[in-house]
Amino acid sequence: MKRNRSMVVAFALPGTLLFVLTMVYPIVRTVFMSFFAIQEITDSVDKWKFNGIGNYISLMKNSLYQASWINLAKIFVIGGVITLGVSLLLAVILKNGVRGRGFFQAAIYLPNVISAVAMATMWIQYIFNPSYGFMTKFFSALHLDSLAQIQWLGGDYKFWALLISYCFGMIGHFMLIWISGIERIGIDYYEAAAIDGANKVKQFFYITLPLLKGIFRTNIIMWSISVSGFFIWSKLFSPISADTSTVVPMVYMYDKLFGAENVDEIRRDAGIAAAVGVMLCLFIVFIFTVVNRLIKDDDLEF
Amino acid sequence: MKRSKKWSSIITCGALITTLLAGCGGQAADQAGTTGAASSGAGGTAAAPAAKTEGTSDGAGSSGSFAGVKLVYWSNWESTEPQGVVITEAVKEFEAETGAQVDLQFKGRKGIKEGLIPALDADQQVDMFDGMSNKSNYGDRIISLEELIKAHDYEKDTNPVLMTLNRSYYDDGQLHEIPYQMKANGYLYNKDMFDKAGIAKAPVTWADFLDACQKLKDAGYIPLTTDDAYAMQAFGQHLARLIGDEEVKKVVNEGLWDREEVLTAAKSFEDLASKGYFSPQVGANVWPTGQNTELATGRAAMYCAGTYVVNETKTITGPAFRWGFFAYPEVDNGINGQEAMVIGNQSFAITKKCANPEAAFALIEKLTRGDWDVKLAQESLALPADMNNESWPEQLQEAKPYMENCTELFATSGGLENNPDITPALKENLMKLYAGTCTAEEFVANMLAASKK
Fold it and tell me: What number is the ipTM of this complex?
């Protein structure tokens, strides 16, 4: 069939232009902005002052920014293990003929359809509140006073309270992705394994897990994207001004871009904010590259 | 056949490009009716010359005859908030009286914070706005109001300290924002608890304050609580009493946490914590937990914040709650007294794009003077802007003498929140200090570590 180049151009051009305007241009501009001292995001280019890698250097030296990345790394690694591990476990259990599967699947997914603001408020006010929260009441009822007295929203435990709340909401989402992956695996493999005497645990480690490699890779990348955009939960656990234990790069970027609250002179720095954005982008690219190198799923066909 | 195909390709291509451009375009000046934050992503546009609003007529004369004038007014309130409700009514009356047409848009605090500057820079028409007196934040996007206040003889009816404060926000020393919805910071307290504890007079000195705390504790009340968001206010004002707010700013910006006065202030709070004056849950109070579930519900007696708390908690406290207020107590070896305090305000401003500042100012004057100022203060339980308005909300009566006697201004939290990069560490360590889980020495050491000194 003869290709009509004009038609190809006609159909490809609008989409390409749109992509360049809405995706490529902002990215390129943000990268450029990160090398300049800029007060407002809308400042014209003639107001930009070249700063070389000054924005990156000052960020790397800033203890609050360092804390934000440490928090992000903890959320990524610890939260990732909890979320992906528990969601995989639940997916396997639900795929093994549990009664009321539909109900449990819907119930576990439910937090995903509730606004993060409502979810965080629920956790802060009804679970972790030190006077009437569930944790305090529950442990008091069991006479476990040392556990009941834990101030979950105090400086020492606030990060963990945040992490537990966030992971709780994310498990359902990843569980569904695992389930879709498990459903791709033919029942024949499990039947053959059962005939050969493999129990459920062995079936999981020798059949399910190897055949979920592709899904595993997808989930890690999805998790890294979710985590790098971590913002609302941090803001709700530390309203008005950021907190060392819950600050993440996105919150730091917001405060630099729009100015922190409760200060006498609001200082904005779009150049620094752009540099944070670039580093977050590089974080995702790095995770994507490493995961693609380490986890290959083209060695198995099923 | 081949020729017609070629033509059809060109036409299709042209149509698609036209559609694309039509979809992307249309960001002309007449966007008065658009809503939202108008975030422009990474894109930046140079501030274009002021575009005239449709229907405006330059120099429309004095208030009372602005027929044909259209004003676009962005408000940082929500339409359902008391301030939003009163402003809506006042604007309607203004329209009826003057013939002006006001496009009032409630953007909320975030809408102003995130969207106003991008909107103005993108040549969107906004004639006036109310905001949080954002201290040089708007640069030359808003106009100086000196000539207008002179022409209207406006200044004489506003608290002079607040006029000074608002002039100090701009390098040229001129007034760019008109103050209203004044607030004073200090200790808000439950008068019933004070009465029952036998405290006849609001504390003036630190010794009075300690005495009040002890009496409240003896009467079975929790004397003090706070929230993480306001944790800096008490410590900041305490330190500012000792060294002044300019020195406090130096401490937070230069990491001078090893100054003797910092330890002295920390010791005072360590003392409060060790005597059990703070709520046992204070270390875990994420705003507004302390404010709403301890102060407003009558579990705790005192809360260091601004007078705005009265309005924020009124649905919990109900009308019977008896509020009291006192400025931060004077401390031993301090360099200032209760005449120095944190006060502030919301503000109105007129943008450079406004073609008829006279009309915009007339509306501002309407909202900040006379009946509407009274109504705004009464409905939002705030302090009136007009000094001639004697009818302060009952709940804030005790703040009045402090406001009137204030001659020295402290920066926000006595200057303690001047460095946003150190505020998070400060907040965390202050909450530990208040909760009694860290000593004054540990507080100083932690802050030195956070400042990398």
Answer: 0.83
